[in-house]
Amino acid sequence: xxxxxxxxxxxxxxxxxxxxxxxxxxxxxxxxxxxxxxxxxxxxxxxxxxxxxxxxxxxxxxxxxxxxxxxxxxxxxxxxxxxxxxxxxxxxxxxxxxxxxxxxxxxxxxxxxxxxxxxxxxxxxxxxxxxxxxxxxxxxxxxxxxxxxxxxxxxxxxxxxxxxxxxxxxxxxxxxxxxxxxxxxxxxxxxxxxxxxxxxxxxxxxxxxxxxxxxxxxxxxxxxxxxxxxxxxxxxxxxxxxxxxxxxxxxxxxxxxxxxxxxxxxxxxxxxxxxxxxxxxxxxxxxxxxxxxxxxxxxxxxxxxxxxxxxxxxxxxxxxxxxxxxxxxxxxxxxxxxxxxxxxxxxxxxxxxxxxxxxx
Length: 360
Prior knowledge:
Elements: E1 2-9, H1 13-24, E2 29-32, H2 40-43, H3 75-88, E3 93-94, E4 101-105, E5 108-113, E6 116-126, E7 132-133, E8 147-150, E9 165-168, H4 172-183, E10 188-191, H5 205-222, H6 228-240, H7 249-254, E11 258-260, E12 263-267, E13 270-273, E14 283-286, E15 290-291, E16 321-324, H8 340-355
Parallel strand pairs: 1-2, 1-6, 2-3, 6-16, 8-14, 9-10, 9-14, 10-11
Antiparallel strand pairs: 4-5, 5-6, 7-15, 12-13
Helix pairs in contact: 1-8
């Protein structure tokens, strides 16, 4: 049993930001990362992915992102940046440490990761609730000859069987993957409701003018749990996600993507739409989201909807437990790279005040 004041779980942008501010306060801590390298959660996404935010909003506290401010980094470039960030500030990251259980015993928190065990006064769960891929139960009824992948498994076209593709889920991931398959000349259906879209091109001059207002004002200051409009928007944002950022409906139409309704079930091994139409795809890519993946937290901190009950990352019912990186933890920007700093700073300050440390 290794004893340390604070354990941070997760070394993505939320965990590294928290570690940065804990270090500024001189607080002993360790950051546990399940992957073998810092940034691997980015590296394992599909090959053509680029960030939806320009580089000027992709840096963490103390280290601006090293690229032209209006460029859009690739997922591997973002992964490498996070790795460089951890190295630059000598953050105490331990990789290959997947936490399997968090509980409280004798007034302290107990964390189990494989054959390693930690005891801590404070624990920061620094990850989004996008941990375990979610597919509908009827996916198991599809013909075994149909290639099925969740978006978390999809990397590129080489994984797919020859022929048509059904992409289920019309959010940002689904729309971008559908664009990729259709551009390759594959018949592509995109199933799911219309989530809306940003009405301008983020990479064009108008985007450069509007994005600072959207990211710094609307997402960061207007849509928060402290404003009426933010409280009204939060339930939908948490359960349904946001609008399309890069892809527009006309983009999908221009490459031949066919929009269809919700996939309601399976008939004779093939997917059936709500209206009764049966499709015959060679491949199905499930862009149907994630389960929170927090079942390893063996503490009474979850509300009726399965979300942790917290106030700006601080869990009142479990003194010493905190969350950073949750979707809409405080604002719509809380899961975004530019928005996580505020939440991480506040949690680190809370830990510092409770630990009796002087502010940095």
